[in-house]
Design brief:
About 10% of the residues lie in helices and about 40% in strands. The protein is built from 5 helices and 15 strands. Strand 9 and strand 10 form a beta hairpin.
Length: about 260
């Protein structure tokens, strides 16, 4: 539980009453923006400290704190953090900036306010990084895309998506719809060559709610998909992405 002294530290000396706001996104403890420029926020399940205490991260530093959107009377900020694992800190001239683990946090505040509230925070290992988040207008309303990338040749999508309800953001279930693509490939009645599969992460274009992924035959290398593409049109049904339609696009040389 935060003490009065802790709250004053977070808000840069302002009283708790000065930071009361009825908006549901601002219901959490206030954080002073000036403080956040140089200090990492606490992230659930991430312990930073001595290795003897079980922590795998020795230190956290702020890489950047930038506003990325203004929406419905609120400003949105993203703080990006560098996590320095103990095993990197032990090597000379290494640590933050040399294959670091990463974390980030999104904050929301009123325009011109010196304090903000935490919306979400995440951390990953050496395979995870975070692109800039965005609020995108779709035909089903606005969607907040919190971009999470699993690096490697697959460039997998581990992002979180939220839909705007008019007062708050509700998380969208964003993985189940991809099962429909696999079912389409497995459907013997579909006009798709046998033996095709998906290997890459799928990143929907939120502005059009369409998604395309390359298809691979078993002997294809990861950089040379030769099986064409699957293209899907998506919708938002309640709190889930769903597939409206799927079509197979043959390789260009077969279409010509």
């Amino acid at each position: 539980m935060l003490s009065c002294a802790s709250l004053a530290f977070l808000t840069g000396g302002a009283s708790v009453a000065d930071n009361v706001d009825e908006h549901p996104l601002l219901a959490g403890p206030p954080y002073a923006l000036d403080h956040l420029r140089n200090h990492c926020v606490d992230i659930p399940e991430l312990t930073i400290g001595p290795e003897e205490g079980g922590a795998w991260v020795a230190a956290c530093s702020v890489t950047s704190l930038e506003q990325f959107a203004s929406f419905e009377g609120l400003d949105y900020y993203r703080a990006h953090y560098c996590l320095s694992p103990h095993w990197l800190m032990e090597e000379a001239d290494r640590g933050c900036g040399t294959y670091p683990a990463a974390a980030h946090a999104i904050f929301v505040g009123r325009p011109g306010s010196a304090s903000v509230s935490l919306f979400t925070s995440q951390y990953g290992d050496l395979t995870t990084y975070y692109d800039e988040p965005a609020i995108v207008s779709t035909r089903f309303g606005h969607v907040l895309h919190v971009s999470v990338v699993v690096s490697g040749t697959g460039y997998f999508n581990a992002s979180d998506y939220y839909r705007w309800t008019g007062t708050d953001w509700r998380r969208i279930e964003s993985e189940g719809w991809m099962e429909s693509l696999q079912s389409f490939l497995d459907d013997s009645s579909a006009d798709v060559p046998a033996g095709l599969g998906m290997r890459k992460g799928i990143w929907p274009d939120l502005s059009t709610l369409t998604a395309r992924t390359p298809l691979y035959f078993q002997d294809d290398c990861n950089a040379c998909a030769s099986g064409g593409f699957l293209e899907a049109t998506l919708a938002i049904d309640g709190d889930s992405f769903v597939v409206e339609s799927i079509r197979y696009l043959a390789p260009v040389d077969e279409q010509d």
